[in-house]
């Protein structure tokens, strides 16, 4: 077990109950929560469903940053609900246009040593300021707002030792891309990444937060940097010097694994289609034609990153072969760029200034043309996430992105022929909180016709007679399960949103997944999903559990299930199982039956084994063994049919 680490210190300071050995469930007290509108509407409906009058956290903030395109009344209906329920329940509300939740929370509310959970998988951005910031499903966030502890596996701590300093044109994005090339996006469940070494002090808080933000792609619980003199200087710039707390690992801290990254040996890198761990150097991609460049998002939408872009564009024009879109991470960043002339530099160069928000990162606009390359400073490039089927999406640093925008092709920025921009750090950042709306007790909650209710599952039966509705492969993301983009406005309408579950696998002339699952449900059987390795990676969207549950899915069985998604399955009464023998995955086909006798009793087996019987179309039968990682509390929840039933 790692000792003397920042991770251990924060857990010890917030410990409520549970084990202290890696993998054992440990409950920690949560200081702060955040939600965003795409996940927040359901989270606050759940908060109401469990009867909470006022949140019990030190601070909870509701951000609107995802569903901002108002093509129909649904999104604005959600905004009105979110604003009113926040006021009613004691939650600060950040309206559309104010900023992306992670960027804005870091600027205004992040505090070293505090715990934060958010209904968005990139909540670990807060680790850049020394917080233990963790992504979670909306129901888990609602429970934390109600004052309940949040449970995680007691983590293994992966120490990443940073040495040296980044060279010109290399960036924080290249650090996390390098780590993704080492750890990949799978196999890291139950771990926390902690950065240390003399290279840490060469990175500012915005650079650190880029690294912790995209650490979500590793599949770890969170990532964290020390809170040191650099952190203090940044808090002074934000006008929050009094909130600084020093938080360092002990000199003799022990880590479960140590990885060393020499910053001065890094080169510009890119994540290639269609996974954040498909890494190549930019030099390897040199000359590849590009049609679109997008800069910003919660990963690279801070002042420093956009100042680098503006300085590189000053007095120059983008290539006529590309379109360039820039989305600042917060309104204050946009205002600072406007006040010092950098926004004019971007516009003069040919950039399109996009709305302050998540936008293109989640497929809400700026979808690329068919058969073209899009280069983005975002954190995910899952297939189809851009809104274009068969997209060719690459992830890079702002430094590389601006080089591509100027040349119209993949270009190592070190070959641009001019010095790398080095923006001066502002003495003070603009601090403008006028748009933040404080809670007002007694506010009437606004519910328009599109605001639904959280659906409930039925209790787990003694005998589960299941049928395999779909069998999928490795690295199935929550984007595969529940598409975002144009469908996001349906988040508060579960019957409608459920119609597009696994839409990416639908085929013309063949019943959709939703139609097949509903038919199985209506026949009286339980739906089963079969996955392979790293099932449920990516977003924290609990709709990837809620909608399948609504369609009658009772079991998800895979070789491995990612942390947040597994927790969401449990929260909504879906049983997550892991194949004891990986070869059994190959024995199962769609439309096969899986029968579980005495399933409720089997879940109490101390060896955590569950036996099922596979029944093939020809009537042949085979026993298949599964394991599970459910805590005693999880078992109670699954048996009850979900947390809301409890």
Keywords:
single chain, 646 residues, alpha/beta, seven-stranded mixed barrel, five-stranded parallel β-sheet
Tell me what you see in this structure:
The structure is a single chain. This protein is of the alpha/beta class. Strands 20-21-22-23-26-25-24 form a seven-stranded mixed barrel. It has a five-stranded parallel β-sheet with strand order 5-4-3-6-7, covered by helices on one side. Strands 17-16-15-18-19 form a five-stranded parallel β-sheet. The radius of gyration is 24 Å and the shape is globular. It has 21 helices and 26 strands. About 55% of the residues are buried.
Strand order of the largest sheet: 20-21-22-23-26-25-24
Measured as a percent range, the helix fraction is: 25-40%
Beta-strand residue percentage: 15-25%
Mean pLDDT: 95
Question: What structural class is derived from the secondary structure elements?
Answer: alpha/beta
Give the low-confidence spans.
none
Number of distinct helices: 21
Query: How many strands?
Result: 26
Cα gyration radius (Å):
24 Å
Q: Per the principal axes of the C-alpha atoms, what is the gross shape?
A: globular
Distance between the termini: 34 Å
Oligomer: single chain
């Amino acid at each position: 077990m790692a000792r003397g680490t920042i991770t251990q210190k924060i857990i010890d300071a917030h410990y409520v109950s549970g084990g202290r050995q890696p993998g054992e469930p440990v409950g920690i007290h949560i200081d702060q929560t955040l939600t965003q509108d795409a996940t927040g509407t359901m989270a606050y409906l759940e908060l109401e469903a469990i009867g909470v009058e006022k949140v019990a956290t030190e601070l909870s903030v509701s951000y609107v940053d995802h569903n901002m395109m108002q093509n129909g009344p649904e999104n604005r209906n959600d905004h009105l609900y979110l604003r009113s329920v926040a006021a009613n329940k004691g939650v600060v509300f950040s309206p559309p246009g104010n900023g992306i939740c992670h960027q804005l929370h870091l600027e205004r509310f992040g505090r070293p040593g505090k715990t934060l959970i958010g209904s968005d998988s990139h909540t670990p951005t807060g680790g850049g300021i020394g917080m233990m910031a963790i992504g979670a499903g909306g129901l888990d966030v609602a429970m934390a707002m109600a004052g309940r502890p949040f449970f995680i596996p007691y983590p293994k701590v992966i120490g990443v030792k940073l040495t040296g300093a980044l060279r010109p044109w290399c960036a924080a994005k290249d650090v996390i891309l390098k780590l993704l090339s080492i750890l990949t996006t799978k196999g890291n469940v139950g771990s926390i990444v902690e950065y240390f070494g003399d290279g840490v002090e060469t990175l500012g808080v915005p650079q650190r937060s880029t690294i912790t933000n995209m650490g979500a792609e590793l599949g770890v619980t969170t990532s964290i940097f020390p809170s040191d003199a650099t952190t203090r200087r940044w808090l002074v710039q934000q006008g929050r010097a009094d909130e600084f707390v020093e938080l360092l690992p002990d000199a003799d801290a022990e880590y479960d694994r140590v990885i060393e990254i020499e910053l001065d040996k890094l080169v510009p890198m890119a994540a290639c289609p269609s996974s954040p761990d498909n890494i190549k150097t930019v030099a390897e991609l040199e000359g590849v034609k590009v049609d679109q460049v997008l800069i910003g998002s919660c990963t690279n939408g801070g002042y420093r990153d956009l100042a680098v872009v503006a300085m590189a564009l000053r007095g120059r024009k983008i290539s006529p072969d590309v379109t360039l879109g820039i989305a600042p991470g917060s309104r204050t960043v946009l205002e600072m760029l406007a006040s010092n002339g950098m926004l004019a530099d971007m516009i003069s160069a040919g950039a399109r200034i996009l709305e302050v928000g998540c936008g293109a990162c989640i497929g809400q606009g700026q979808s690329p043309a068919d058969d073209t390359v899009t280069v983005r400073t975002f954190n995910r490039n899952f297939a189809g996430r851009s809104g274009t089927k068969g997209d060719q999406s690459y992830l890079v640093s702002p430094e590389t992105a601006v080089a591509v925008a100027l040349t119209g092709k993949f270009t190592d920025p070190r070959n641009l022929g001019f010095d790398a921009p080095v923006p001066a750090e502002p003495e003070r950042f603009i601090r403008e909180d006028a748009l933040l709306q404080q809670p007002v007790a007694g506010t009437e909650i606004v519910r328009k016709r599109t605001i639904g209710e959280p659906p409930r599952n039925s209790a787990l039966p003694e005998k589960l007679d299941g049928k395999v509705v779909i069998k999928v492969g490795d690295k199935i993301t929550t984007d595969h399960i529940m598409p975002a983009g144009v469908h996001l406005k349906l988040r508060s309408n579960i019957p409608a949103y459920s119609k597009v579950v696994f839409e990416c696998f639908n085929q013309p002339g063949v019943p959709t997944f939703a139609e097949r699952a509903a038919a199985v449900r209506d026949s009286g059987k339980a739906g089963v999903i079969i996955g392979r390795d790293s099932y449920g990676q990516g977003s924290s969207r609990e709709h990837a559990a809620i909608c399948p549950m609504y369609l009658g899915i009772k079991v998800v069985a895979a070789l491995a299930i990612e942390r947040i998604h597994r927790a969401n399955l449990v929260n909504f009464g879906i049983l997550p199982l892991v194949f004891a023998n990986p070869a059994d995955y190959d024995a199962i086909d769609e439309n096969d039956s899986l029968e579980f006798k005495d399933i409720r009793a089997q879940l109490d087996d101390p060896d955590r084994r569950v036996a099922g019987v596979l029944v093939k179309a020809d009537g042949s039968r085979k026993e298949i063994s599964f394991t599970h990682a459910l805590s005693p509390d999880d078992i109670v929840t699954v048996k009850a049919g979900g947390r809301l039933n409890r």
